[in-house]
Amino acid sequence: MVTLNVNGVRREVQAPDDTPLLYVLRNDLELIGPQFGCGLAQCGACAVLVNGKEARSCVTPVASVANQEITTLEGLPARWAKQKGIAAEQAKNILHPVQQAWIEEQTPQCGFCQNGMMIKATELLESNPNPTVAQIKDAFTNSGPSPNLCRCGTYIAILEAVQHAATIMAKRS
Amino acid sequence: MATMSEKPAKAFGPTLSRRQFVKAGGALVVGFSLAGPEFLKGDSVKTATLKNSLDPTLANSWIEIHPDNTILIRTGKSDFGQGSTFTAYRQIVAEELSVPFEAITTVIAGDTDRTPDGSGAFDFLGHGTPNIRKAAAYTYQALLDLASERLAVSKDKLLVKDGVVSGGGKTISFGDLVRNQQLKLTIPVKGDLTSIFGLSIEGNPPMKPVSQYSVIGKSFKNSVISSKVAAKETWATDVRLPGMLHARIVHPKSLGSTLVSAGQVDKKKFPNAQVIVKGNLLGVVAPTEWEAIQAAEQVAGATKWTDWKGLPGNDKLYQYLREEADWSSAPVEKSKAVKGDVGPALGSAHRKHAATYQLSYMKHAPIGPTMAVADVQADGTVHIYTHNQNPQALRGEIAMMLRTTPDHVIVHSYPGPGHYGRSNGGNAGAEDEAVLLSQAAGKPVRVQWMRADDMQWSTQSAAAFSDVQIAVDANGKLAAYQIDHYMPAMQDDRPIGAVLAGLPAMSAPDVHSGDVTSTVNGISDPWVYAPVPNVVERGHGTFQVGQKVSPLAVGLRDHSMRTPGQFQQNYPRELAMSEAAALAGADALQFRIDHASEERAVGVLKAVRDASGWDTRPSPRTDAVSTGSTPVRGRGVSLMLRSGTYWACVCQIAVIPSTGIVKVEKYTIAVDPGIVVNPVQLKRNVEGGAVMGISHALFEEVIFDESGITTEDWNSYPIPSMSDIPEIKVVLLNNPKVGTYGGGSEAANALAAPAIAAALYDATGKVLRRLPLKPAYVQGLLKA
């Protein structure tokens, strides 16, 4: 039995300690934002935030993140609401500015990697609200265990969406 | 293989105009299905409707008009990230029906029991007339007929705006026209539902004149992006059925190994796991995913396979293709551009260029490995839940494997990672394996390939080489152009699980194995330099490497990949054109303009010249150097015609000679598709294609030894990260007078390679005629 704190909710799961967090999230908790891309921490499709830092759930043993603050794609709106003091009831109807920017910029193509891209963008913008193009490129290339990879080649759209999200966030703070 | 890009990009064919249509009588049949106006006659074929299928001859199977004025559309084309089904298709239907974009509230795509037409996830715009457009045009005429009857106003006096028909001072909405009525509109359809091309709607219904377009040309958003971004979309990876088992496949040790003995599960460690063996197909199933993964690893270690070595290995690939491959069994194909007499022109050339160009195997490499859930039920009905580019073809393949008929197979289609062509032939790898394991286990089974399975057991884009000879005359003009393209069969549609299990599958690539899976190498790159007086283009085909000697009959399996066949042929042509320009002492971009006759080809070249800040001069630059550790810069250009769209790009690069590292610093691309349906969606598709093109040009090469593919992950098969991406400038040339809309999701991924190679030549004075332009190969070239 492992106790997880996911998207602000305490969850008890029956899984061997070494089970990668990804399978627990997807199969036991039905949190399907993170995707299986490589199982090797080489692509970022499975990314989640652990205590605000991007982690690759495909290689993270579930027991190692017991009682840590885990945020998945599903939890981004509530995370934003909490940061901005938006009431829980109202928070159900909003998206995180990163998600909103991803839609307004029409960023995804197949979209399979974009969970990790939005997680990385959230991590970046929480520490650097107004990143330069160089800082965005550096974050998506060098700050994680591997670069966040997109096979459809949406990097330009991601760059534009991160900048757009920064603008939305600045307006609301 | 198919040469789709050489089909004429005829939008409407010999149609009746709207006025003529009305004059012809307008007896479009609503309510029963025989007879009909002129445009319904012709080569209509009555297709037998399978169980668990829609009747494609009923317009209602494609487009449903509801009494509340909402509209539902259905298409067999699955979305793989192009977004066309959710944007362009809705715009096209809205335009033909004269309804607002927002009226089309539902798009059903891909499910074999809920969509009518099949075909692969390519050529969405169907050379300007996708099936859905004709379905809309027929439906519109039927609605006009109904309105004419209801309003007692002749058809030619009716006006339609936003789904409301008006005439004679009266109005009625489409919703009211169909309310409380059982309407049946029959349309002519032909083709083979489970083939790669599926069914097509025939005839030439009147279409809305381009000058009246109001929905096409606007940047409507893709609805599926919103649900994916909000984690509200159900992906194939999310499908979970009651009692479902998780599975992993233990693939053979090599591409020719057969099973000696299957390992046993260590029941102390993995009490719930079970091994399933069918021929050389070995699967491990367990109730939880983690147990299945671990047990499969343990079983793999305990399984014995025969050894096999039958591939040339990566280092000897081109030597093998040149000297050992059998190029005589498939007839040589010639292009339509062949003319004049190249022999004398080459013989008397003022200047002559002769060279060979090589292009490696590349993986489709979806960002998520293939997966599928299958449920083989007791009554023999098979349900498959997957992401697949051609669900109807998959249906046919599964039926063949199980020795049943397609009506017993239902494929449910969900979003998944882009395949870029890999499953256009009906399977990506896991679907048939899931079916066989489910059949054996008597429960639903979810097969998920691991990253290494996907790199090593999937198909790939075929390697190729081309021999080019060019003559330049004393006036600096091309006097002769001769190219011989050599490529192994580029499409193997056999499901790998069926092959491993020894069950029925279509035949391996052969000269007679079918249109797209044949060993014949057709010419896929339309010739765009019409003024050249003497031209020869030949295609030489052969079997896949290893296919004939592998005991499994697999070898290096190929499958069409984004811009298939044309990439292999356009890269040598366009790099050779840049070299020919240098030989003539001419600027490479102006040289192309001087040899192109088509206005649209010249148009994209001029647009990319202006947008990139191209400096007109010959290559290489006068201060080109091939040594040293400081970056040297150069630029190159390339041109392509594909699926009715003209493309040109300019790449500006920097290369460090001592390391061989090439970096693209600026990428400019001009696109003339005719009518731009949705500018934002097209721009995003082009940007993505451009990035993939840089990836193909600089990074991608499948590495293999004598037994199989050794490339296994993103370290051994690198693709670009965000820091590899240059400034990208996209120039969209909306060209309504063309009267049709061409494709936008392909071509861009192939354009970069010859432009980057030409830029390397411009910078260093040396030409690398081999892809990819990896540091080691560039270093080797510059040191030589």
Description of the molecule:
The complex is a heterodimer of chains A (173) and B (784). With 173 residues, chain A is α+β, with helices and mostly antiparallel strands. Chain A folds into 2 domains: 2-72, Ubiquitin-like (UB roll), CATH 3.10.20.30; 74-172, Orthogonal Bundle (DNA polymerase, domain 1). Chain A has helices spanning 21-28, 76-84, 88-91, 97-104, 114-127, 133-142, 155-172, and strands at 2-6, 9-13, 47-50, 53-56, 69-71. Chain A has a 5-stranded mixed β-sheet, with helices on both faces. With 784 residues, chain B is of the alpha+beta class. In chain B, 25% of the residues lie in helices and 20% in strands. Chain B is built from 18 helices and 29 strands. In chain B, the strands form 8 sheets. A 7-stranded mixed β-sheet of chain B has the order 11-12-9-20-17-18-19. A 6-stranded mixed β-sheet of chain B has the order 14-24-23-22-15-29. Chain B has a 4-stranded mixed β-sheet with strand order 25-26-27-28. The interface between A and B is large, with 58 and 56 residues.
Number of strands of chain A: 5
Helix content of chain A: 40-55%
Question: CATH top level of the largest domain in chain B?
Answer: Alpha Beta
Question: Could you tell me the mean pLDDT of chain B?
Answer: 93
Low-confidence segments of chain A = none
Question: How many alpha or pi helices of chain B?
Answer: 18
Structural class of chain A: alpha+beta
Give the overall form of chain B.
Answer: globular
Structural class of chain B: alpha+beta
The CATH architecture of the largest domain in chain A: Orthogonal Bundle
CATH architecture of the largest domain in chain B: 2-Layer Sandwich
Reading the helices and strands of chain A in chain order gives: EEHEEEHHHHHH
Number of domains of chain B: 4
**Assembly classification:** heterodimer
Radius of gyration of chain B: 27 Å
Largest sheet of chain A, if any? Answer: 5 strands, mixed
The pair of chains with the biggest contact is: A-B, 58 and 56 residues
Strand order of the largest sheet of chain A: 2-1-5-3-4
From the spread of the alpha carbons, the general shape of chain A counts as: globular
Distance between the termini of chain A: 40 Å
